[in-house]
Amino acid sequence: MEKQLFRAAAGLPAAMADRWWPHVDAAWREFAISTPARQAAWIAQVGHESGGFVFTRELWGPTAAQQRYEGRLDLGNTQSGDGKRFMGRGLIQITGRANYRACGTALGVNLESNPVLLQGDELAARSAGWFWRWKGLNALADAGDFVGLTRRINGGTNGLADRQVRWERARRALGIQ
């Protein structure tokens, strides 16, 4: 895929496509997000999670849901302050101490000691690619199971309508029926 096609598929202005394209392209190559179906699904899901490739850090209130990050053993948040320290970061919003540790190990970066690193463009894109592979999302994208993708990323169907609008735009741009 070329940058202009990525721009159209993601619905980005030129400056945003210029910013993200090298990192997205590298992440796709690294994590085998290599077909139009996979790329369209990735663009849609990551586009939703990042507010259109704008945010690499979760907007922090804290909301009631964010307050529940504290002490969540399933996220590895075992120390006081872990909920906020390991808030969602990266294009797909990696959340929780355990996920930062796993992602950092895979990417060769100590994210547990420096979680803010996931806010940088390169690691934001790579972490989204790593998460995609870790969660087996290529198989769901290949099968066209977009609701299944959403559930595996989000745990439910939060934002499904926006995700589907983004998916349809990406599919049209990439010539997928």
TrEMBL record:
<feature type="domain" description="Glycoside hydrolase family 19 catalytic">
    <location>
        <begin position="43"/>
        <end position="133"/>
    </location>
</feature>
<dbReference type="InterPro" id="IPR052354">
    <property type="entry name" value="Cell_Wall_Dynamics_Protein"/>
</dbReference>
<protein>
    <submittedName>
        <fullName>Chitinase</fullName>
    </submittedName>
</protein>
<dbReference type="InterPro" id="IPR000726">
    <property type="entry name" value="Glyco_hydro_19_cat"/>
</dbReference>
<dbReference type="GO" id="GO:0004568">
    <property type="term" value="F:chitinase activity"/>
</dbReference>
<dbReference type="InterPro" id="IPR023346">
    <property type="entry name" value="Lysozyme-like_dom_sf"/>
</dbReference>
<dbReference type="Pfam" id="PF00182">
    <property type="entry name" value="Glyco_hydro_19"/>
</dbReference>
<dbReference type="GO" id="GO:0006032">
    <property type="term" value="P:chitin catabolic process"/>
</dbReference>
<dbReference type="GO" id="GO:0016998">
    <property type="term" value="P:cell wall macromolecule catabolic process"/>
</dbReference>
